[in-house]
Amino acid sequence: MTEEEMKKLHSKIDAGVKAAIAAAIERHRKLGQSISIMRDGKLVTLSADEIPAIQNQQNTVSKDKWELH
Q1: Which of 15, 22, 25, 49 is the most buried (most CB within 10 A)?
Q2: Whole-model pTM?
Q3: Dihedrals φ, ψ of 47, to 5°?
Q4: Cα–chain-centroid distance for residue 55?
Q5: How far is the C-alpha of 39 from the C-alpha of 61, rounded, in Å?
Q6: pLDDT (0 to 100) of residue 14
Q7: Which residues contact 63 (CB under 8 A, 6 or more apart)?
């Protein structure tokens, strides 16, 4: 596999992972479930009301690292 093919594959994988994370976060928000995220090096739990609605599946979550709770 060439370097260019590897870059394209990595890009597709990244896009798929981001879309899956966005869908899972949105599902938690709609079901009223909380999520936990790392913000400024600290664990923060967001209630469903605090989870921002995702406008675009391609444009996932800001700078926070999201982990489902």
Answers
A1: 25
A2: 0.68
A3: -70, 170
A4: 12
A5: 12
A6: 96
A7: none
Residue 61 pLDDT exceeds 60: no
- 59: closest CA among 31, 21, 27? 21
Distance, in Å, from the CA atom of 46 to the CA atom of 34, rounded to the nearest integer, reads: 5
What pLDDT does 65 receive?
56
d(C-alpha 43, C-alpha 14), whole Å: 24
Q: Which two tokens stand for residue 43?
A: 């664990």
| Locus of tokens 């909380």 | 34
Are the beta carbons of 20 and 58 closer than 8 angstroms? Answer: no
